Structures are given as C-alpha cells and as structure tokens.
Structures
1.
Amino acid sequence: MTHFFDRIPKIRYEGPDCTSDYAYRHYDPDAVVLGKRLEDQLRFAVAWWHSFAWPGGDPFGGATFERPWFGDTMAHAKLKADAAFEMFDLLGVPFFCFHDADVRPEGASFAESVRNLEEIVDYIGQKMAGQRTRLLWGTANLFSHRRFMAGAATNPDPNVFAYAAATVKSCMDATHRLGGENYVLWGGREGYETLLNTDLTREAEQAGRFLQMVVDYKHKIGFKGTILVEPKPQEPSKHQYDYDVASVYGFLKRFGLEGEVKVNIEQGHAILAGHSFEHEIALAASLGLFGSIDMNRNDYQSGWDTDQFPDSVPEMARAYYEILRADGFTTGGTNFDAKLRRQSLDPEDLILAHVGAMDVCARAFKAAAALYEDGALEAARAARYAGWNDPANRTMLQGATLEEISDRVLRDGIDPKPRSGRQERLENLWNRFV
Ligand code: XLS
Ligand code: NI
Ligand code: NI
C-alpha cells in the first residue's frame, strides 16, 4: 500500500444524476452497447508515463509534482508500480501501457538496464496476477536518452541502431511475458533536424530493416499481439518520417510489411498533421491498417502536442463512429496518452482526469453507436453512391477502356446532373444523436 490515493473512493457507475465527483455518469462497464459490454468496446488503458513518470515540467520550469516514487532505485520503481495498480483498481480500468523507461531505472550498462526491466516485469506480473488489469501494449523509449538524439533506427551511428535493436528486443520480451495485446513503435526521433546533414534514402532503409526485424522476432517468439506504428508529423524531430497514416502506409508498402503492421492513431498527432482524428481512423480502416488509438487532445491555439485529457463529446463521437464503421477494436483499445496540467498536483487530479475522460469517451461512444445502429447516415451514404450498382456503370471499374466509355457517353447522350451533397441535413441528423 502506498497510501497515495487514501482519500479517494473506488469509482463506480452511478448514472447521470449523481452528485459526486468520484463516480462515472456515463461509463457503465457492464452496459451492453451494440452487442458487447462497454468495457469491451472501449478497452480503456492508462499510460504509465504521463500518470506516474511525468514530473510536471515545461520549457520554463522544472518539476512541480512531488511523488513518493520519484527516484532512480528499484525500490522507487516498485513503489511506482504499487501506486499504478492502486489507481487501476480504483478506476476499474481494464488495461495499461508502458515504456521500459517508465517502469525501471536506467542501469549503468545496457545489461543492467535489461536486468532492471526483467525484475520490474516480474513484479508487475505478480501484481497483474492479483488484479484484473491487463497490458494493452508495451513499447521502448527510444527518444529521451541523449544517445538517441539523432534517432534510433535511423541514426547515422550503427552502434545506436544496435543499441535500439537490443532495447526493442528486451521490450518485446517484456510485453510478451506480461501477455500484452500489442507492441507499439513510435519514432519520435526517427526524422531529422536539417536536410543539410541527412541522408533520407539511407535512413528509410535502416527504418525498413529495423521494422522487418521486429516482425521477424514477433513470429520467432510466438507473440500473438499486433505490431503498431504510431504516426506523428513532428515534435521532437523537425520532420518525422512516420508523418501520418498515409506516410506509414507508403513506408509499409515499400518494405512489404503492410500485412504485418497496423497503426496506433493519436488524436493530437492527427491534428498536428493537419488532419482530423476521424480522417486518420477512416483512412487506416480503409487501408486495412486500423489498430488502436491514443486518446487525448491538443490545445488548438498552441500548435504542439499538449497531450491533454479529452473533453469534447462531439469530437470523440466522430472518432468512435469511424471505429464502429471499422467493426470496432480487435487487439486495440483507447489509451489515455494524456497528462495533467502542471498545476494539477494532487492525487485527486490524476483520478478525476481519468474519470472525466472515460465518461467523455463513453458518452461519445454511445452517441456514435446509436447513430450507427439507426442506420440513417449509412443509408444516405449508400444512396449517394447507388449509381454504381448499375452493371453498366460497374464495368467502368472492371476493365472498360477509355474508348468504350467515350462511345457510351456519345451513344447514350450522358449528361450528368449535379445533386446536393446534403451536408447540412446530415449535420442536423448527426446533432440529433450527439
Ligand atoms: C508522443 C507519443 C508517445 C507514444 C508512445 O508524442 O504519443 O507517447 O504514444 O511512445
Ligand atoms: Ni501516443
Ligand atoms: Ni503524442
């Protein structure tokens, strides 16, 4: 027991009219929506790094948080794990996610870092045995330490490539041991600061080879989870190679890995790339790449990745609607890659951030599910493309040539009549559900 959350009761579903801060108003894990329990639809996960490792710094000031588990020893790491599992239990959250650097102290050598990781993984494994929380995904932090400042897989120094490969192996082993359902690669430093010193061709080939080795190792150890790449356009790199879903798809095709790897899409990263979250989800689904989501939000004025907890039901509903159109999550889930604001010092803040975020997501999901079930939007979409059901039109996509089409246009006097896209009607329909 850490006593860190002592003043906080276990959070339960109490319905929309309850008056306590410490209750879910919309997230009823056992409620069945579209044939599945809400817990199994949403698959919420807590992010170890933001919740337990982040000290509250910003570019103008250092740590604001004081946590009893801050420190570099294994004893601190275990205390941190104790607090984490206490919070998972209080929230009743089914999953968590972690990087190696969040859970273990860095050792004096690579071997010591791996030993530390193995020891804490055993400890976490024991905690998991006594609780129902499972691992959504594990990952390696290949961006914080100064050795990775010029990239991990894409570093000009082959020794860094080797160190990164060995690190990923240890993190895949850890994820496999804990029964993780996915393994994530986010390449924060896989990009460049200036083209003046960068060989784009070489770096892409290094990244392709690296990912191929990850896929080979997954099969070798019999890891049944999904390998996920998390796109982001920039920050910390000036230009990041896995810019968005479309770039990742091109990269996977180039190296023949499109059947092996899917994407973990983050709300804030989609916005930074100049897309909407739902666009990235819809595109991934259409390319057969949709895997999981990092749920957060950016400050829309600041233009960087502020990783705030989600607070907008209408925005999240758009995202969940696309997820439902993609048949929902399989191994993926909703990971709160979100951190407190630096003035939110208290244990209560950490709990309430998650309670609010889970309620926002649940509300958004239920609204999206009701609209999806109603079918009016999908019927309107299908009607818009109904002309393609005509066999004469279908042949245009199945082998007809330009000349044949041209003959048909002349013969039949084809003369298209513009039709309304009915956007406002559909927006009104949307708003009746959300
Ligand atoms: C940073 C990323 C990171 C990944 C995991 O912007 O979102 O937190 O999710 O390495
Ligand atoms: Ni993320
Ligand atoms: Ni992020």
2.
Amino acid sequence: MKVYKFGGASVRSADGVRNLCDIVREETEPLFVVVSAMGKTTNALEEVLERFMAGDRDGALDGFAQVERNHEEILAGLFPEGVPAAVAGAVEALYAEARGVLLSGGAREADYDRWYDRIVSFGELISTTIVSAYLERAGVPNRWIDMRRCFVTSTRHRDANINLPLSAPLLKRAVAGAPVRVFVGQGFIGSTAAGDPTTLGREGSDYSAAVAANILDAESLSIWKDVEGILNADPKLFADTVYIPELTYLDAIELAYSGAQIIHPKTIKPLQNKNIPLYVRPFSDRGKPGSVIRGEMTGRIEAPILILKPNQVLLSIRPKDFSFVIEDRMVYIFSLLEQYRIRTNLIQSSAVNLSVCVDASRHLKEVAERLRQEFRVVYNSDMELLTIRGYTPPLYEKYAESSNAYLIQKTRKMVRIVRRTFPWRPQTNIY
Ligand code: ASP
Ligand code: MG
C-alpha cells in the first residue's frame, strides 16, 4: 500500500482533478488517496462560520451558496457531457446537510470550536465525493472512505489528535477485502468517540495521510504539491531559493514547528514511528524527484533554511509589584494559554519578565485580560517570527542586526527573530 495526499491547490480546478486522476492511474500498487478541500474552500467555510456565529443566517447561506457554485463549476468541467445524476445527488445531499446546519442557528460563542468542525468539515466531504466520482467515471474504480468513521479523535475541537489504537481497526476494516485498488478519504477530519465531527488543525490533511500510512503499514507517503519539492525558503518571498533533496524527520519537525508550510507539524511522528519515508512531489511535473524526508540522510543540507511565521503576537508579562519572580507563575501562564489553545512559538524569561511569542488568536484579548489581574502585560501585535537554520554571519547581520527585531534567540545552529511584520516586497533575495 502507498498513500498519496493531494492538497487543496492540486484539486482547485477540473484540470487539477484530471491530473490527480492521471497520477493515481499510473500507480500500480494499492493506493490510499487523501484529499483536502478544493482550492480555498476551507477559508470560504471559515467565513461562512463567522457569519453564522454572528447570527447572520442569510449571510452564512449566501457564503455557502458561493462555495456550492465553486464546486458546481469544477463538476461541470469534469463532466462536460452532464454531471451523472448519482454524483449530482451525492453532492447535493452534502450541500443540503450543510445548509441544515447553518439554518439551525442559536450558536453560542463558547461552542465556537465545535461549530467550526461541524461546518468546515464539509469542504473535504464534498471534495472527496467529487474526486471519487470522477475517478470512477475515468475508469479508476475506487472506494470512498468516510474518515469520520475511521479516525477517532480527541475532543479538542479544531485541533484534534487522532487516537491511533482506536482508529487502526476501523480504518483497516474500511479497506479490508475491497474489490478495488484505490481508496479515497478526506484529510483533516475525524470524529470524537461520541460521533461529533472534529478537524485536525489547518493544513491537517498531511497529518491524516501520515496516520493512514502508519495504520496501513504503507511503504511510503507522497504529498503532491504545487512546488518542486522542499525549498530552503518560501519562493513567494525569496527569489534565490534552492531545492533541498532530503531531510531527516528531525529536521522536518523543527522546520514545520517553526512555521514552514511544507508539512503539518503533526505529520512526522506517525511516519517516524514506522520508518515510512515521506516524499514531497511536484504535482505538475511527475517526472521530477521532489524531496524525501526519512530517518537517515545520505548527504547534508548545504543551504540555510529561512522560515517566516506570520500573524504573531509578542506578549511581555511581568508581576505587577515584583512580589514574586515570574518562574513561580509560569505554570499558571502556560496553562492559561493552553486552555485557550493558543500556540506558543518562542519563550524567553528573566527574573521578572516573561516574553512569549504566540499565534494571533481570537481568544488572546481574553487571555490578556485574565493575565492583567496579576501581571503587567504588554501586547505587541503585527509581529512575525523569522527562523534561520544554518545561518552564517552575514545572514545574521542582515536579519538580526539590521532589522527592527524585538527579540532574538540564538543557538549555534539556529537564530529566531521576532520582529514587526513588514511589508515584504514580493520576492527579495535571501542573501
Ligand atoms: N482543508 C484544510 C485546510 O485548508 C486542511 C488541509 O488542506 O490540509 O486547512
Ligand atoms: Mg490546504
């Protein structure tokens, strides 16, 4: 068994789905295909949710109608001779179910994360329904798998973790004895043991694919992307990026954690545990080798790797009256952040000061208010975190010394800089 994962960009159009079909058809081994929501569907559904939470039912339905139209356009492109009734019916049933949720109303802000999962999970359900139907029509018989019934997750809505021991028998049973070689399942979604839908965190489809690979003892996982492979920086920001042919699991986890968009941070562990190699392959040029992530490297990484994590907030926290050193209250501070699911990306402390760089979150104001009962809290928004792994002195000078850095953390291998977001000219040079 091999696992292939296709992200939103690779299925954003009818041409994309046809390309997916060609890739799947070329493979001769049994294949588990994990698919994300099409194009920007997840973002669109997040907006639908915002309106829904604000009590704007019509706005939410309008937003959802646009999501429907986007999918209808792809369907029309895939089935120019007319969408088969069964396919149209299956997709319409999902739209209707989603509309039903949007009509239910009365959502409380406290249940935001649960509603998120209920509504946003439709993106993947719709995309896989379309992909599976198209493959079938194109002569690739396959079985559509409902991952909500295979992945049992924690109840941590919007950032759920998959319970491997509970999920393994379910997924194995779902693929067992199938008369087909190809399976199509949704990335990003699962459900709690009680059957409540959950999502695994933005870009979580990679994680889904990795867990599927683990459970099915796959020989490899390939993530098909709209890039040549792993690059040493985001090519949208830098003109002089270079391609990195191989990385270890450890490198990959560090990079993903720092905000590299290559793969979701939770992806590596399930692969590492069974020593399954991960290939990042260019969707539009199947002849190219892409990059591989695995336990051992044959060479070494020559280029520095730059990762920019946007949407950061730098909190500076200190006891109001110096009556205690900050260490005494660290557990409290971090449990508060954890309680609101705010991700901490960098920590620096002194006797009476704690600086934490966290992801901007809708709950941050609330957290700051609670902290202000005991602490003086300074709150810098519009920050970004730049991580440079394998930096050189000139690079250090360019980025740490000459930028408006608020906070710098440095080890022999890596420097991390929290700085005010600045309007990046599209594509500068790394050096
Ligand atoms: N569709 C989800 C997202 O856009 C999951 C994924 O693409 O991996 O975040
Ligand atoms: Mg995506």
